[in-house]
Amino acid sequence: MKNRVYSISKRFKQSLLEYLSINYFTIMSHHKAFFEKYATPISIMVAGLLVGAGIFLSKTSSNTSISQQESNETSINLKKVLKGTGINQKKLEACIANQDTKTKVDNDMNLAQGAGMQGTPHMVILTEKEGKPVQVAVPGAQSKEVIEYVIDNGELPEAFADYAVEVVEQTVTDQDRVQGNTSTAKATIIEYSDIDCPFCKRLHPTLDSLVNEGKIVWVYRHSPIPQLHPDAYNKAITAECIAEVGGIDAFWKYLDATVS
Q: Whole-model pTM?
């Protein structure tokens, strides 16, 4: 019973924090005037709510191991990926144990920080505007319609125009994890993502659909947020070990099993 209460409480805490801190982009675009007028009282109310939630949730979780629960989730997904893939399990286990891919994950995180990325998911869409290449930052788990608008127009929709930010130029390298048909794709989307982020889970099938339709090339980069998801960093290392030992197809299978 305690484990079940903890699980529900933990999801509530993560969803609340992420909705307020990460999904601000969509909220603000629709209620900009209201938030500007009442910014101070709203900030006080939100701070009080988060403190109260933190106290309540810390009490309900005192007898439960976060790392143990999330490690079990990783193990279950890993078994799904290993089945029928032909991955050498001993090599994979050694890679994970030694954290052989830690540098790759750290490099992705440094790229996110260097580009000024805040929150997850965060996309940079490489497309064209008036025949010239452009890069457009798109934060949050935006809808397929919004993403396709950016691909076709090379800019954010008018409703989001006030929140456009300058993009630090992004370059795709042979170190990136990529899928998609470059001959048909109209754009490349670089996603900075946290494997355990619920909004990343919401975006994942949208990007998967665009890849399957031949519209985009999808580049996945890790940007785990340990303050919200304590095991996300280790899951990123696991994903990269799977890529190293089992290849790019196994990498995407693992993401599909874990993020979906």
A: 0.74
